[in-house]
Amino acid sequence: ETGVTQSPTHLIKTRGQQVTLRCSSQSGHNTVSWYQQALGQGPQFIFQYYREEENGRGNFPPRFSGLQFPNYSSELNVNALELDDSALYLCASSEGRGSTDTQYFGPGTRLTVL
Amino acid sequence: AQSVTQPDIHITVSEGASLELRCNYSYGATPYLFWYVQSPGQGLQLLLKYFSGDTLVQGIKGFEAEFKRSQSSFNLRKPSVHWSDAAEYFCAVGAAGGYQKVTFGTGTKLQVIP
After folding, report:
1. Interface contact flag, A50 B99, Cβ < 8 Å
2. Which of A6, A21, A37, A99 could form a disulfide with A106 if both were Cys (CB 3.0 to 4.6 A apart)?
3. Strand pairing class (B10-14; B108-113)
4. Which residues from chain B sit within 8 angstroms of residue A99, using beta carbons?
């Protein structure tokens, strides 16, 4: 069984640019969540997608957007990058969208904004 | 709003010694509680979770945690630490609802000395 994968592993962008991060869910999982983990901090919830619809959102501005595809893979898009967007971005997939459904995390994408 | 406090940023223990990592949460109702471990270059892995029932929860890798409502705590324990346990540990709280809004603590970095 393939776990959650993310691409790319590392990325360097400059302020004002746009970035797309990708996540491939674990087989059979219809829910994906994205988290931002700044250096020295715990992950912060960005949003969740369930069956291709945004199902919940944390305290992040609209320039953070996402997509979930019919095969349940997902993208996180960030527009107008700011220095503070430098972080590890984690995606997690689960069989369902409830809090009791176990989330399986990918290894993350390290984004550096210069 | 839910929140998690992990008062210890960094802990060092000798291999074979016992371990306790502290976690305090804030949530109005019965919380869903989690402990995750993150090794360098790896995603988060779920160690154990508590939703209801027996307040002593057994997890993977020999870890256990005890939910104490009166103290708003969910401390993680292991009777004998192995060098491979060196990693960062995150406590998290979730809520019943339509989506998995999980709030993480800032983490405790565990160092194991031979």
Report:
1. yes
2. A6
3. parallel
4. 32, 94-97, 99-102
